[in-house]
Amino acid sequence: MFVRADIRNTRYLVCTFGHMDFYKGNPDHWGANALSRLPFSSIGFVCKENTWFPQADMIKAIEATRNIWRGFDKRLTYGFSMGGYGCLKFGAALMADSAIALSPQVSIDPCHNGGKDRRFSRFFQPHLHDGMEIRPEDLPKKSCVVYDPREPLDRLCFDVLRAMPGVSGFKAYHLGHDTPDAVASSSILGNLIKVTFDQDDEGLSTLLSTSRRSSRRRTIGLALALLRSRPEKAEAIIEKHRDILPPFWLNKFAEERAKILPPVAAE
Prior knowledge:
Elements: E1 2-6, E2 12-17, H1 32-35, E3 41-46, H2 55-64, H3 66-69, E4 74-80, H4 82-89, E5 98-102, H5 126-129, E6 142-147, H6 152-161, E7 167-171, H7 186-197, H8 201-213, H9 216-226, H10 231-241, H11 247-260
Parallel strand pairs: 2-3, 2-4, 4-5, 5-6, 6-7
Antiparallel strand pairs: 1-3
């Protein structure tokens, strides 16, 4: 694990947690590029392997950086997927006021929650992860969880978290697990952080509703959702946006279409 910091003359600190595989080819911390354009200091925790921020490593990292993060009046933790787990799990340890967790896990222990979520269980190591699940006492004062309710295992994780104090859910339909796509620009991220610092749930909900509609990931997600019930509409959406959609998503749509609909007749 390593820690990077970008400290400014400001009262506000954003503590970020890198997602799975983020370290590969990234010498800086997650979100550093976007945050460098915003009026916030930042400090980032990054795993060099997909180890989900082991408790022993994080205790050392938090203690080593205490003189940095304790100097700010307002602190917020922020992360996606593995990083979403980290920003919730260590929110209280960093004395954060709030967290923004995008599609977080609660644990990667294959026995957790009846073994229903095994997406990342191949990374579970008992000596690193025993008792790793998020507990109420781990959370900051307020936790904002952004997730797609139609992504079953992300919804399962939120259903566990929603029972804990201070947790609010924000639905990002048709984004799947890729919820960061709704806050990809620095301006949107800046507004997201501001309304979260202000604890403005209505503003956060409005911001996410607006920003996700311009997301390319939502475009493909909406087309996939319509494929069975309104295939003509789904294909019209794809054709309208074909020039801006990455090949991976276009291939995904073609694969799903092939499972459901007859082949397109050759001209």
